[in-house]
Design goal:
By secondary structure, the protein is an alpha/beta fold. The chain has helices at 38-48, 63-69, 73-82, 85-96, 111-116, 119-122, 143-153, 214-220, 232-241, 263-275, 281-294, and strands spanning 7-12, 32-33, 36-37, 53-58, 99-104, 127-130, 134-136, 156-162, 172-178, 185-192, 203-211, 248-252, 257-259. It folds into two domains: 3-261, Spore Coat Polysaccharide Biosynthesis Protein SpsA, Chain A; 262-295, no CATH class. GO terms for molecular function: UTP:glucose-1-phosphate uridylyltransferase activity.
Length: 295
Amino acid sequence: MGAHRIKAVIPAAGLGTRFLPATKAMPKEMLPVVDKPAIQYVVEEAADAGIHDILVILGRNKNAISNHFDSVPELEVKLMEKGDTGKLERVVKSSDLADIHFVRQGEPKGLGHAVLRAKAHVGDGSFAVLLGDDLIDERDPLLTEMIAVHEETGAAVIALMEVDPASIQMYGAAAVEAIEGSDAVRVTGLVEKPAPEDAPSNLAVIGRYVLPPSIFEVLEQTGPGKGGEIQLTDALQVLAESEDGPGVMGVIFRGRRYDTGDRVDYIKAIVQLATDRDDLGPELRPWLKEFAERL
């Protein structure tokens, strides 16, 4: 089963309350990170991993997301007439990335519930879940490695990242065992947002998953967990504990990740990505140094 056979699911139904009033009429996934909406980075990452069938789970304010990935002939014609090929390429790229489908979540009942909404589209194949709050640098492949581990083992695969033990309470934390001769680890348990003294490790679960279709059956039997929502973590815990299944594996990511989940991290993500760009960095870096000295 090649990567191209795997479908991707991007949950985009969250309310984005941390970014109000910007998200009052626009989904947080459409907030620009430099000059592209956050969700476009995520779609590009899936496409770069060879995935060409993508399902976006929408909440209210859905039109902005579906409109963004539709072609806009009148805009394309205008740019063509102006001879602005650079902008034209960027506009066309967003509608040519992949075959993108949309389904409504209805009420936001948690990530597990959003993933369950993908069941009819995904069918009986494996699929990747990519969350829009974590942007993974395109120079640091993660998804391709996770797909390879899944194809080799059949296990659910989660992405893990070492964090400062003091901040583990902001994440799900994984208890893991090393596997001889492998970079991947076996996940023996997951704890959602533990206090630092209760955390099984400083390995935080970040927003990338490669899941077998058996996860749907588990989710259907998973009652509401933390916050009264159906948690994907709870379903993964069931798979990790199951003795007769392939279990859960983890891939530890040591590359660059940009967090767009809260306002300060979102601003940091924009600055980091912009300073690295050839078209913006040369002007921005010296200005940032001067600005920092004035603080």
